[in-house]
Amino acid sequence: MSDDPNDLTSPIDEGVTAEDLGRTLFIGVGGVGMNGLTRLYATRGLDVTGSETKDWPSLPELERLGVTLHREHVPSNLDGIDTVVRSTAINDQHLEVVEARKRGIRVYHRSEALAAAMTGRRSIVVTGTHGKTTTTAIITQMLAHAGLDPSYVNGGENIGAHTGAHGDGEYFVAEADESDRSFLRFRPEIGIVTNIDVDHLNTYGDMDSLTEAFERFCRNTDKDGLLVLCADNPGTLALAKKLRAEGRTVATYGFADGADIQLGDVESSKDGVDYTVLYQNQVLGRFHLPMPGRHIALNSAAAIAVGLYVGLEPEDVAAGIAAFGGVKRRFEKRGEKDGYAVFDEYAYHPTAMTAAVTTLKEVAAPGKLIVVFQPYRVYRTIAMREDIAEALSLADKVVVMEIFGPGEDIPAGEGGQALLDAVNLPDADKVFVAEWDDVPAAVKALAGEGDVVVTMGAPPVQLMPDELLA
């Protein structure tokens, strides 16, 4: 492990396990990433405490699992603690981090604690610009359905399950975050890259540096293991060809001709998506996934590659995928009101937004699709304004909220109104709403019988469906 506490790329010391961390304090356990890891440690029977000042719906579940929760950040939270775990969002000046170092308590990044939990397991790590959470969830569900009882930590909450849990089986499935380079800590047996697209340039600077990081992740994967890369994405396809030429075992997947796991004959409906799967040009079977969308089927293809690699029969792979319950905030139907349905969707990057809007328009037909979008982060909204606007222009009607950028200032003329102005829809079908409390009235004015309304973006817009359905 590096001597630099902010180096998020070096592996943890070989052999370090979750048990070696001793009594552990997780800072900020309400957020999805830390919540899942805390759940994993708690369900593993370890001595876990957590600190969180915000009221998150996931907190009572942690207490039920025996996690001691501190509802304020104070020095006494460190009493009796052996290890503190923080995410990138918790900086060096955070009170508990400062106090831990003052007392000589080791401070781990979330990725280190996750890597420690993987020690001794056959690890499956999923990364990529889009589709990580759903792909991780499908793989986890497939292995669980086959009786393999995997451990897992995901970046979203599986419907009918959780963000993370300890399993007694040999496999460990995890979503890895590329945004801060921390995915470079892992040394998985199976490494999956769903795609490489423009994002996190505040960390990487340019696409070359971003692509190099994904290549490094692939090279960190066990040389005797498996790399699973999407054949439909130029970045991952080029990487697959390069690594395969060097003798690495690579499985490609997608709709593209030549993919090892190739999908075709796709039929999408409100009940999900059906598709034919070919494995090395031989028909594997007809599969059903109970979530709509070609891009969801694409995510499942990565899971199919994993299932075949670990020795599952094709019918067991298909059964596991058919049993998939979905992920919260991924095409999640939240309810109906006044004749229209309300969905919630996490997408905030233009590529993911395009896929989500396209699929939801199919679901809405013959009704209209109304997108309620909250832009996330000022710098990325300004940089990607035209691409985001192009994705929103695929909807029938749009409500744009003000940019959610904690700690950021919005330059004059660069806020949500500027994004709305770039959306190519008639003025009557698009509206900018600056205040949260005014959104329900704007939606009511646009939506009608048989329509679909989707709230879209990173938190906190996920709370808006409750307002719309009230």
TrEMBL record:
GO terms for molecular function: ATP binding; UDP-N-acetylmuramate-L-alanine ligase activity. It is an enzyme of class 6 (ligase). Residues 329-458 form the Mur ligase C-terminal domain. Its main location: cytoplasm. Keywords: ATP-binding, Cell cycle, Cell division, Cell shape, Cell wall biogenesis/degradation, Cytoplasm, Ligase, Nucleotide-binding, Peptidoglycan synthesis. InterPro entries: Mur-like_cat_sf, Mur_ligase_C, Mur_ligase_C_dom_sf, Mur_ligase_cen, Mur_ligase_N, MurCDEF_pg_biosynth, UDP-N-AcMur_Ala_ligase_MurC. GO terms for cellular component: cytoplasm. Residues 126-306 form the Mur ligase central domain. Gene3D superfamilies: Mur ligase, C-terminal domain, Mur-like, catalytic domain, NAD(P)-binding Rossmann-like Domain. It catalyses: UDP-N-acetyl-alpha-D-muramate + L-alanine + ATP = UDP-N-acetyl-alpha-D-muramoyl-L-alanine + ADP + phosphate + H(+). Coiled coil: none annotated. Its EC number is 6.3.2.8. It is found in: Cytoplasm. Residues 26-120 form the Mur ligase N-terminal catalytic domain. GO terms for biological process: cell division; cell wall organization; peptidoglycan biosynthetic process; regulation of cell shape. ATP binds at residues 128-134. Pathway: Cell wall biogenesis; peptidoglycan biosynthesis. NCBIfam families: murC. Cell wall formation. Belongs to the MurCDEF family. This is UDP-N-acetylmuramate--L-alanine ligase. It comes from Glycomyces lechevalierae.
